[in-house]
Structure formats: C-alpha cells, structure tokens
Backbone:
C-alpha cells in the first residue's frame, strides 16, 4: 500500500481500491489506547499508521483500502471522510440496510430501536501529500464475538452489528457490487476489474 501511494503521488500509477478479507486480527490506529486491547493474545495485533483506535478485521468483513489522489478532487480530509461515509451508506441502502452518521462518531451506525445503536461500518484513513490510504470496513457476516477482545474504535457505549445479524441475506458479493457503484458515483471513478 505504501509503495502504491508513493507511485500515485509520483504520477506513476493510477488510483486504486483494494477489496480484501483478512484473517482474524486486530489493528491499532494512531490513537489506540493500551487499555482498549482487552485480549492481547487472542489474535495478532498490527500497529498501523491510519487514524483511529483498535479495530477487528476478519472473515466475513469487507475491507476496502482506498488509494485516491485528493489533489485531483477536493483536498479536504473531512470531505473525504464524509464521502467514504456516503459510500458505506449507499452500499448498505442497496442491500436493504439503513446506515446513518452520528454526530461526534466516525463510521456508520444502525438504529436497532429502544435507544440501541450498533456500528456496522468503520473508517480509518491516512493522507500523505494528499494521497489517501487505509480505508473502510463493513461487517457482512463476521463472527461478532471477535470484537469482544477490543473496545472497537474506542466506543464502549454501543455495540457492533453485521448484515447477517440484522437478518440481511446479502453477502460479500452483493456488498461488493453495491460498493463499486457507490465509489464510482461518489468519487467519479471508472471501475475496472483487477
């Protein structure tokens, strides 16, 4: 990812989205607090250069690393994060789930009723010389118990959910198709297969 970001910055490579599914692991962003890693021996822990705190990645979760040149768009990090939120909201809507922003919280949330809100989409990015990297994750059907080894994104007052947990039948293939349309629309990208 670092090499690709450098190549994009140098004008030697086009922008790129990587759609991945990781083995079970925890990642620590630049704001991660030691006390938020509740089970340090459960899965491998990787320190990253992205913003944010601890996150879980694993099977059944779509991770999209977003490597875009913001100079070719709008060099505004807050706008970029809002656009990523828009992509997640649009993709979720396409598979029948209402995702929402919450003031003061990064990521996308689902209203479960009776005052309960669960996070379904996380965002953790870094921008170097206006080229973005790291990105988003959306829970399609991960093992939600794997989140219990961390305080996800430093938020303990709310839970974590997935498409499967919400009763949505869409899997990664349907989610990917919806994400590709959302990224193309929001960032004006031409999507090409790898």
Residues:
């Amino acid at each position: 990812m670092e090499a690709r970001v450098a190549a994009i910055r140098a004008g030697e490579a086009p922008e790129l989205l990587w759609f991945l599914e990781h083995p079970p692991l925890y990642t620590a962003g630049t704001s991660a607090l030691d006390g938020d890693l509740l089970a340090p021996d459960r899965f491998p822990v990787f320190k990253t250069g992205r913003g944010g705190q601890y996150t879980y990645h694993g099977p059944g979760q779509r991770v999209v690393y977003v490597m875009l040149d913001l100079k070719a768009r709008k060099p505004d990090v807050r706008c970029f994060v809002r656009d990523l939120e828009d992509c997640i909201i649009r993709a979720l809507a396409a598979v029948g789930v209402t995702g929402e922003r919450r003031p003061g919280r990064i990521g996308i949330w689902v209203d479960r009723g009776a005052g309960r809100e669960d996070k379904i989409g996380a965002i953790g990015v870094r921008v170097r010389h206006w080229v973005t990297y790291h990105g988003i994750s959306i829970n399609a059907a991960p093992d939600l118990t794997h989140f219990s080894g961390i305080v996800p994104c430093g938020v303990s007052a709310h839970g974590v959910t997935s498409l499967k947990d919400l009763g949505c039948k869409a899997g990664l293939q349907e989610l990917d198709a919806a994400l590709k349309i959302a990224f193309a629309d929001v960032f004006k990208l031409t999507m090409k297969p790898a």
